Amino acid sequence: MASEEFPGWHGTTIIGVRKGGEVVIAGDGQVSLGQTVIKGTARKVRRLSPGGHDVVSGFAGSTADAFTLLERLEKKLEATPGQLARASVELAKDWRTDKYLQKLEAMLIVSDGTELFVITGAGDVLEPEHDVTAIGSGGNFALAAGRALMGTKKSAEEVAREAMAIASDICVYTNGNLTVETIKA
Hints:
Elements: E1 9-10, E2 13-19, E3 22-27, E4 31-33, E5 36-39, E6 45-48, E7 55-61, H1 63-79, H2 84-97, E8 106-111, E9 116-119, E10 125-126, E11 132-136, H3 139-149, H4 156-170, E12 179-184
Antiparallel strand pairs: 1-4, 2-3, 2-11, 3-12, 4-5, 6-7, 7-8, 8-9, 9-10
């Protein structure tokens, strides 16, 4: 199959919500190849505990690439225990400048319960202005829904779950099979 004919992998919506002293990261389970759902139960949200400091992460993009980045993040966190911002910036710098890492196609949302960041291959470490961030194919739908729900009395988990439900109703590359991790400040 010629490379221009390859339909490409699609899927994943990840949302991060910071509210009420906790952060929730939720991700759907769908992985698609073209118009075909390959898997509906993928787990794209993980808890890491380098050096005894918990960090929750979610990824969108290539799974192998995301795992490579998560391993690098763990090493950065082991070198700078409890300093998520510093470890995230160091990862983003490596990702931007290392010829091998530059080819990786993924994005990460990470949180230690206090800080919430999106890390990109462009060298960005972004903190959301409105305590909600989302990535992936349905990310914009989840982000819009999450921001609209932030003014309600709903908890961080309720906001994340409802925003993901809305995104899965709109985005054909997102399903309602969620993995949800909560981390408190």
